[in-house]
What does this fold into?
Amino acid sequence: MEILAAVLGALGLGTASGFFIRAIVTQRGENKAKNRASAIVVEGEESKKRLVSEGQEEALRLRRTAEGELRSRRGELQRQERRVSNRDEQLVRRSETVEKRERGVNDRDRELDSREAEIEELKGQEQKQLEAISSLSMNDARDLLMRRAEEEIQYDLARRYRDLEERAKEEADQNAKKIVTLAIHRLASDVVTENTTAVVPLPNDEMKGRLIGREGRNIRAIEAATGVDLVIDDTPEAVTVSCFDPIRREVAKLTLAYLVKDGRIHPARIEDMVIKAQKDLDEIIWKEGERAIFETGVRGINPEVMKLLGRLKYRYSYGENILQHSIEVSNLSGMLAAEIGANVEVSKAGGLLHDIGKALTHEVEGTHAEIGADVARKYGIPEPIWRAIMEHHDEEMGSTEAFIVAAADAISAARPGARKDTMEHYVKRLEALEEVANAFPGIERSYAIQAGREIRILVKSDDVDDAQATMLARNVVKKIEDTLVYPGQIKVTVIRETRNIEYAK
It folds into this structure.
């Protein structure tokens, strides 16, 4: 029983302990649940607060964005309002300006009307005075003007008939002009400038003192040996050789170049260098003569004549190199002779040697044509050639070849830029043409163009109207015909310009 009681007591105690433990475990679970619920509530409150805060911030941001856009739109509206206001002001100002202009135009119209009335009255008075002075009625004066107009028209018709006649003549000479033009276009050559001085460069200014020498003995020796004048001035690193004889000038130039290169400058050395320069120049002259004969294709020329031909390299006339001119005339003569069926060999030889006398004009008396013919006869040049040389400046010529040489010589000399005096006359002719035009009132500027075959005149639009511009062109034509000498015809163009300028604001 005791055991049973013990067992039952143990069981009761275990049961009570179990209930007690279960109660504790249950209480702990409830506490955990309560704590978890509290945490969830707290977390929910925090999330709520956070969401509310974020919503407030987003709303604030949206509000600020909306306010910025609103301000921008308000600014744009204000700018548009200002632009509209400015445009309105501009329109008001323009309308006021237009009204002022209209008032001005109306005033001018009234003034013009009054002036026209005054002019008509003055015309009537002037007409009466003219009729009283001239003893002519209006009808008689009109008849007189018509007769004068008819005379001017007849004059214009006569000019047109003359132009037609000249055009017919030009067409009749068309073949000859084609031949000349072809010959000119097939030939081109370099033209050098005439010089009576030559400049020799020096390595330094100390060389000037050495060229002068002690008490001027070196410069005197050079001038005595070469026959030139040495000009030693302030020009840096240069000495000028002056002499009318181109051969002596070239010898002196070569001598100075040799002395400067050698460095030994004394009278004995100067004489040696002069001899060397003369030999070298003779060789150059010979080569130039050979070159001229080779370029032209002329055969059978005596060596002495070839030397004289080479001397023309250093001979100038009116700024034109005679050797280049002779080559040009020879080629032109050959082309012209070939076109018309004349003797090409005689024409080319005559053209090449037509100025050969100029190589001796400073040594022999007489014209260069006579001297050249004598030289050609002396060295066995055939008669047709030396006659072409002699007759190329005569009025009457005995052969077709002589005429061809004379024509080629004139063509070469007349080429623009070939001779200095030709260019000067050309410029003076253009200036004279512009001076004739500028002498009339109302002219602003005038320009001679197309080598003097046309003149364009710019008139002042305020001083000259369209009708006056027509009369001005006619008056300029008459003045040119009366005062100037010119080949062919001159076109007169009068330009009157009117400009209307407005500004967009």
